[in-house]
Design brief:
Elements lengths: L8 H10 L4 H8 L3 H8 L7 H8 L2
Length: about 60
């Protein structure tokens, strides 16, 4: 299991919204369930380093 990266969940949401993306858009690009992305944005869970790298790529 990969280590998760603790981030401010408000920043993740802000970045997604600045990119004009819905949670479903991010989930589709990440091949994740939308509830996983919601968990990141609500501070319930955190993405891994690999997932953060993938988020940064368009």
């Amino acid at each position: 299991m990969q280590e998760t990266i603790p981030l401010n969940p408000q920043i993740l949401k802000w970045v997604r919204e600045r990119a004009n993306l819905l949670i479903e858009d991010v989930a589709d690009r990440m091949k994740k369930d939308p509830t996983a992305i919601e968990g990141w944005e609500n501070g319930i869970s955190s993405p891994t380093c690999v997932q953060l790298e993938k988020l940064g790529c368009r």
